[in-house]
Amino acid sequence: MVIEGIRSLLQQEQDVEWMGHAMNADSCLAFLKQQQPDIVLMDINLPGKSGIDLCKEVKEKYPSVFIIGLSTFNQQSFIQKMMENGASGYVLKNASREELLEAINTVIKGKIYLSDEVSQAMKHTHSENIILTRREKEVLELIAEGMTNNVIAQKLFISVTTVDTHRKNLLAKFDVKNTALLIRTATQLQII
Amino acid sequence: MVIEGIRSLLQQEQDVEWMGHAMNADSCLAFLKQQQPDIVLMDINLPGKSGIDLCKEVKEKYPSVFIIGLSTFNQQSFIQKMMENGASGYVLKNASREELLEAINTVIKGKIYLSDEVSQAMKHTHSENIILTRREKEVLELIAEGMTNNVIAQKLFISVTTVDTHRKNLLAKFDVKNTALLIRTATQLQII
DNA sequence: AATTATCTCCCTGAAAAACAGGATATTTAA
DNA sequence: TTAAATATCCTGTTTTTCAGGGAGATAATT
Lengths: 192, 192
What we know:
DNA-binding; homodimer
C-alpha cells in the first residue's frame, strides 16, 4: 500500500521515472542485477534482512546507486547506521510529497538529504552508537529468549564463562546493570 | 507522504471520494464537525492522542462513520483495542492497493474487514488473558527500569518478600521463567 | 611489526533471582 | 454475605547473575 502510494505519487512527476519495486532484500538485489536506477527508496523494516544491511550490500555492489532510507519512526540509531552504510538521505514516512521530491532532487546531485526533523533527532543522541560484535548480538538474542548462560553455552558450544563474559560486555556496552534494563533498552533501540 | 500516497491511490477510483485528511486527533475531530465521511482511515500512531483513543471518541460522536485502522506493524494488542473501540477494519500499511479497496468495500456495507495476516495475528494470542493488578503493573515497571527487589521494596514501602511474590506472580501470569523473557514479552505486548 | 578487536576460557565471591510452599489480612464482587 | 481476588509477609534452598579481575589465540588493521 505504501509502495503503491509512493509510486502513484511519483508517477505524477515528469522528471521522475518509476523503474520498479521490491518487497524484500533478495528481490531488490535481483532487480538491481537487471537494471540500476539513479535512486533507491529503501524501507528500514524489511522482512528478514534489515534495510540497513541491504543498504550496505547495494552500495558495495552498485556504488553509483543513491539510496534514500525510509522509516516510520525517527529512530536515531537507525538513521545513523543507514548513513554509515552509504545512504544519501533519510526521509520519514510522514513526510510531505514536497519533502520527498526535495530529497530526491538533493540526492540525485550527490548531496546528502536529511529533513530538519531527522537531523534534529540525530543531535539529540544520548544513546551512543552501540556497536555489538556478531557473538554479542547472538548472545543478546538468546538472553532475550529467556535462556540462561548455561543453556546458551550448550547452544553455542562454548563455555559458560565465555557466555558470562559476553553478557558482562553487553551490560557494559549498554551501560546498564542488569538483565531487565538490558532487554528493555535493546528493544527500545530495536536491536532485538 | 503516506497520506498523499494513499490519496493519489484512492483518487484513481471513481467510486471513492477523498474528502480530506488530518495530521492529528484534534484536527480530525474539527474536520468531522464540518462533514462526516462514510469511512475514516485512521493511523494508530498519532502525535499525542493515540488512534485507539481517537477511534473511541469518533465512534461515540459519529456512530455512522466507519473506521478502518492503519498501522505498520501487526501488533495484536493494538488491533484488538482498535476493534473494541468500534473500528470496522484493520489494514497493514504494507497491504496492497487491492486489499485496501476490498477493506473499504467491505466496511462500507457495515461488515468487518480483517486481512488474513491480521486475523491470524489475532489468533496467535495467548496474551489477552494476561490481566495485571495495579500493584503488579507497578512492580513490573520498576523491574523494567532496572530496579532490584530490594530497591522496589524501599520505593513502595513494602517488604522484599512481597515484591518477590509479585514478581513470581508476574512470571506465572506471563508464563515465563526469568526477567529477560518477562521484559521482552511485556514490551512486545506494549504493557510497558 | 605492533596494535587493536574479537573470541575464548578461567577464578573468587557476593548479590540477586528463581523456586517451593506456606500464612494472613483486606478489598471486591457475585 | 460469602467467595474470590488482591496485597501483604514468612522460611528456606537452589540457581543464576553480577563484579572484577586475568589471560591466551587468532585475525584484522595500521
